[in-house]
Amino acid sequence: MRLDIGTFPVTEVVFGSETKYNDGLLEINEDELLAPVLSDPRITKAKIEIARPGESVRIWPVRDVIEPRIKVKGPGTVYPGTCDRPVTTVGEGVTHRLSGVCVVEVADIPQHEKGGDFIELYLDMVGPWADITPYSSLVNICVVIEADSDLHIDSKNIAVHQACLAISDSLAATVKEQTPPETETFDLSTDDDSLPGVVFIPCIHSPEHMSGSLNTFCISIYGISRLMSPWILHPNEVLDGAISCPYRTAFATSWAMVNNPILLELYRRHGTDFNLKTCIALKTEWTTQQQKDLMGQQTAKMAKMFGADGAIVTWDAGGNEFMEVIRTIQHCEKNDIKTVFLTSEDLSSEGVSTMLEPVEEADAMISTGFFLGDALGLGQIPAVDRVIGSPEFIIGALRDGVIPTQGELPPPRRHDDHYGFTNLMCEET
Amino acid sequence: MISAIYGLALGVGANRIIKGAKIEHVLGDPKMGSEKDRAYSLNLVRIALKTLEQEVTEPTLYDPYEFLKTEKKEVSDAA
């Protein structure tokens, strides 16, 4: 399975008479892009606003961030399965992408209404919070969108995400026929037998337990968000968006999944330092100890069957899910697979561990900072000149307070950059 | 401690740990209806209280089902 990804860098985005890409300049015809979206009876409002790096802009509430990509050759569609898109296996042929730009889905629609999961994410283009998100260095094409309030929550979710994917598709279509200035080839067909085998194990949240539904929209694999046994994915499938849609943090987004720095680095060192064997995506938030133990054991078994001598484990949520994640590490190590864990940390007091359940087998970990935004030491996030989205920001544990979005805000509630996008560093004390 | 995620309870060194049902409903099962759900809960709480009578030297996990079997055996042995 060989995938060539052609990159078209975007340096500026402007509104214009047609939607086209020319040598770094992306021109957008807003009416044309929004026409199919606004003709959808499920959508009541939609507009496009642009936020550029360095501008004093805040975007709220942010549901997802999407990188415009399109299949040029080979089967399937990027971001497959979700919102009724084809489920044809992806990862082969040629994909073109617009880099330096992203579609930001701005809507206050939670994944479900059973409590616990809210849209809590805002993005800044400048300031201390912007400094630790990858999106502040991209031109953000924000789709501020509302769905018919009478719709079922699942329908609202699909309607707005489908709309944003359609806009992303249209933007990417501008470079479908063009020759990319840069191309990178992703091919694992040859191994060097003298090198160790490595697998990548991304642990992906499932909303099934929180929502009580098998079909809740959330981060998903080929559109499937429910709890199920671990998925064996060719890394190329991940690069074509097989894992997509958002969860509740800045780092579980469609954009983050296809730009995953761990996967890209593993790929680039394939055949030189080790052989990248496969990607095993573990669905998390199981509800009994037995299920959690089973998932850890099965994931480790699969890794072993693929000839893993080493593994990198990442995850995208906090708490409950940790149980199957840490057990996966435990069982990999018991199977002689050296395993590294990328994780954020909890706050610690009186020498207590900064992780929920430390196990002795988990002896190689990389901290990506603190999980709670309050603990990051960013202080209050300064006011901005302009807001894209809602002028009212929701605060309070009961979500019963409202303050102006434009003013000073508390730091983001969660910062779980479990992929290492940011350059936060630990300080020895 | 009654816990559905007893692995964690063992890890942090709780003395006596009783296996609970599920994370959503540690002490019962709403699908059983309120009467049976309550009986299920009471049984777990009773077992939890019983375990307090046992000396333990390290984190000890009790399976409610196994506990009841042992208890019955003790009763019949005594008889």
Brief summary of the model shown:
Chain A is built from nine helices and 24 strands. With 429 residues, chain A is an alpha/beta fold. The mean pLDDT of chain B is 90.
Give an overview in words.
The complex is a heterodimer of chains A (429) and B (79). Chain A has 429 residues and is an alpha/beta fold. Chain A has helices at 30-38, 128-131, 153-173, 208-211, 235-239, 254-258, 261-268, 289-305, 322-334; strands at residues 2-9, 12-15, 20-22, 25-28, 43-51, 57-60, 62-66, 69-73, 93-99, 101-106, 123-124, 139-147, 182-187, 197-205, 220-221, 231-233, 243-244, 275-284, 310-314, 338-345, 365-370, 386-389, 392-395, 401-404. In chain A, strands 16-18-14-19-20-21 form a six-stranded mixed sheet, sandwiched between helices. A four-stranded mixed sheet of chain A has the order 8-9-1-13. The longest helix of chain A has 21 residues, at 153-173. Chain A starts with a strand and ends in a 25-residue tail after the last strand. Chain B is mainly alpha-helical and 79 residues long. Helices cover 49% and strands 11% of the residues of chain B. Chain B has helices spanning 6-11, 34-51, 64-78; strands spanning 2-3, 16-19, 60-62. Chain B has a three-stranded parallel sheet with strand order 1-2-3. In chain B, helix 2 (34-51) links the parallel strand 2 (16-19) and strand 3 (60-62). The longest helix of chain B has 18 residues, at 34-51. The relative contact order of chain B is 0.18. The interface between A and B is medium-sized, with 13 and 12 residues.
